[in-house]
Amino acid sequence: MNIQSLHKKLSTLALGEIRYFESIGSTNDEALAWAAQGVSDLSLVIADEQTAGRGRLDRKWFTPKGTALAVSIILRPTSSSHLSRTVGLAALSIADSILKHGFVPQVKWPNDILLNGKKLAGILIETVWSGEHVDSLVIGMGINVNKESVPPAKDLQFPATSIEAELEHAPAREELLHDILSALIARRPQMETDDFLRSWEEMLAFRGQLVQIKAGGEEPVTGELLGLAPDGSLRLLDKHGNNITVHFGDVSLRPTA
Ligand code: ADP
Fold first, then answer.
1. CATH code of the domain in which 54 resides
2. In ligand 1, which atom is closest to the CA atom of 68?
3. Could you tell me the residue range of the domain that residue 188 belongs to?
4. What is the CATH number of the domain that holds 223?
5. Which DSSP helix (H) or strand (E) runs through 243?
6. What's the CA-to-centroid distance between 56 and ligand 1, angstroms?
7. Residue 19 near ligand 1, beta carbon < 6 Å
């Protein structure tokens, strides 16, 4: 992968500018700084390696050289509505690119993509504010493409996999990125619709199962996973029959043993 191969593969898509790095700390950090300088909608930061890739709450995201797709996509929203569905837009776009190969991924709410029950990709959405309104959003995606991208089990709290391990072959990263971006461009105008919410909801892992949500230092919440609220929050049914809504934030979801 290099800047020429990226430009060539992505030339048919209506994108902003593209920056490519052989090695970078975090593509999201670069994209946030670039977005703050006013770069155009759908500009991309892509790296062959991240040395300080981030998950939520500064947890580490592992992107070894030449094996994974690390990209940050800058969005300049035209309306402030449905911004909370951006993580769904990212999840559905990654899912579309995998479905094309005949495999059905799932979303471990809120921000991980699973394939065969193992973590294939992570999404990290960050915001550039201008006073009280959102100036831009950065969608960070880390996708395990080759087998070597998967971190050693001792570094993980949840099992991980790669496209190559599950599909027995790995697409070129430029090809994968092209498919994700064309899905994102196609789905973006639909973000406000009920169909969009339903498609996102249908991808949820553990639907109808008991899950436990841990949020910060609070007591874990256990309930049956029902689906999504219109803003992308998670709906659970607790053992007393009460509906609970869990908002994004520092939450980690696990199936109960
Ligand atoms: P959680 O799984 O608790 O929701 P995050 O979504 O914040 O956590 O993702 C960060 C976590 O993902 C890290 O703490 C690490 O355990 C795991 N991780 C890091 N790099 C990878 C990777 N390339 N593939 C799969 N899992 C990873």
1. 3.30.930.10
2. 23
3. 3-202
4. 2.30.30.100
5. strand 243-246
6. 8
7. no
Residue nearest to atom 15 of ligand 1 (CA): 156
Pull the structure tokens for residue 220.
């874990």
Is 0.85 topped by the overall pTM?
yes
Q: Is 201 in the pocket of ligand 1 (CB under 6 A)?
A: no
Strand arrangement of the beta sheet that strand 210-215 belongs to = 243-246, 234-237, 221-228, 210-215, 251-255
Pocket probe mutation, ligand 1, options 108, 147, 156, max atoms within 8 Å of Cβ: 156
CA of 111 to the centre of ligand 1 (A): 10
Answer positive or negative: Cα dihedral of 170, 56, 180, 213.
Answer: positive
In single-letter form, the type of residue at position 200 comes to W
Helix 173-187 / helix 86-99 crossing angle, nearest 10 deg = 130
147 lines ligand 1 (CB under 6 A): no
Q: How far is the CA of 156 from the centre of ligand 1 (A)?
A: 7
Rounded to whole angstroms, how far apart are CA atoms 111 and 208? 19
**Which pair of structure tokens corresponds to residue 66?**
């030449």
Query: Is residue 123 helix, strand or coil?
Result: strand
Encoded amino acid at 217, one letter: G
In this predicted model, what pLDDT tens digit does every residue of 172-197 receive, in sequence order?
Answer: 999 999 999 999 999 999 999 999 99
Digit-coded pLDDT (tens) for 90-148: 999 999 999 999 999 999 999 999 999 999 999 999 999 988 889 999 999 999 999 99
pLDDT band for 238, please (50, 70, 90 cuts).
very high
Phi, psi dihedrals of residue 212, rounded to the nearest 5°: -120, 135
Number of domains in the chain: 2
122 lines ligand 1 (CB under 6 A): yes
Residue 64's SS3 state is: coil
List the structure tokens of 49: 């390696």
